[in-house]
Design a protein that fits this description.
alpha/beta, TIM Barrel, twelve-stranded mixed beta sheet, 20% strand, binds S-adenosylmethionine
């Protein structure tokens, strides 16, 4: 087994989040686009596979596909097949769920382990306001189907926003329990790639309020050390995970992730775009695996905790 690589702050690099497209079928007003600036070019499935092979050779254990919306790529099943045949501990995908009902079984059969579905509200008007679309029922059916076909666990990512959906957490928890999913509530994050920065002041919700409530109700609380120190609350026959990235030094201290942009650049931090390392040019000119490993190591060396704390 390959040893894990560690950055200059003693953080092991366990997972790789590959953004396979910048395109999306909805327009969430707060979207940080996984910290990625607009790009024309998308990697081919072969290029994604090559990158995954190198990632595996330096000890990366987990791959997550993201975007944009990964399910709008026509070759998504081929991409999953190529990656899952490489023997990672975990291959997962983050989706807005709109195409999930159609794809769930094919994704499972091609080797995907699990999905996170971004779904912020059960209210059709609020859904329309957030996404500028009417796909709410598609997403609900997608979540149900994903759980049915055994993509496990199905997690629902709910970004909590003041005055918009902060009072829906318990309803969403209920919905998740009924449909075999785990609720993950996420603090709204301000990033440079957000189209309109005013939204943050208007909608940022203080997660301490909900965490206090969760502490009171929980029968057990666990901390996921290698997952940015997230807290998991067990209550009422279900669980709620809380993700708090903003100004969170523990979030950085426990970050074990590297990212790839849709045009094939290694991205050491969600919140920065000034220290990317290009893989595409070297791959296209036929550079050796050894050279690509060196580029991975350069990106790992570039990793610095954005909010400090290491
Ligand atoms: N299209 C896919 C989806 O909807 O899950 C993948 C891309 S989306 C950028 C990945 C995740 O980032 C989603 O769960 C989304 O809710 C979250 N996200 C986007 N902008 C955010 C922000 N400003 N603060 C917190 N989470 C955000």
């Amino acid at each position: 087994m390959t040893d894990l690589k560690t950055d200059n702050f003693q953080r092991p690099i366990i997972s790789l989040r590959i953004s396979i497209t910048n395109r999306c079928n909805i327009r969430c007003f707060y979207c940080h686009h996984d910290g990625i600036l607009p790009q024309e070019y998308e990697m081919t499935s072969q290029e994604i596979e090559r990158i995954s092979v190198i990632a595996k050779s330096i000890g990366i254990k987990k791959i997550r596909l993201s975007g944009g919306e990964p399910l709008i790529r026509e070759d998504i099943i081929e991409i999953i097949k190529r990656i899952s045949s490489l023997g990672f501990q975990d291959v997962s995908l983050t989706t807005n769920g709109i195409l999930l009902e159609e794809y769930a079984l094919k994704l499972k059969d091609s080797g995907l382990n699990r999905v996170n579905v971004s779904f912020d509200t059960l209210n059709p008007q609020t859904y329309r306001f957030i996404t500028k679309s009417n796909y709410i029922d598609h997403v609900k059916r997608g979540i149900k189907k994903a759980a049915e076909v055994g993509l496990y666990p199905v997690k629902v990512n709910m970004v909590v926003m003041k005055g918009l959906n902060h009072d829906e957490i318990w309803d969403m928890f209920q919905f998740c329990k009924e449909n075999g999913a785990i609720l993950q509530i996420i603090e709204l994050l301000k990033t440079e790639s957000c189209p309109d920065s005013d939204f943050f002041e208007d909608y940022h919700y203080d997660m301490n309020i909900i965490e206090e409530e969760l502490k009171d109700k929980a029968t057990d609380i666990k901390t996921r050390a290698f997952m940015q120190d997230r807290k998991k609350y067990f209550l009422e026959g279900g669980e709620i995970e809380v993700v708090r990235p903003m100004d969170n030094t523990k979030f950085c201290k426990n970050c074990t992730r590297l990212r790839i942009t849709p045009d094939g650049k290694l991205k050491p931090c969600l919140l920065r775009n000034d220290n990317l390392v290009d893989l595409m040019e070297p791959i296209r000119r036929g550079d050796s695996d050894e050279k690509l490993v060196k580029l991975f190591l350069e990106a790992i060396t570039n990793r610095e905790p954005y909010y400090g704390g290491c």
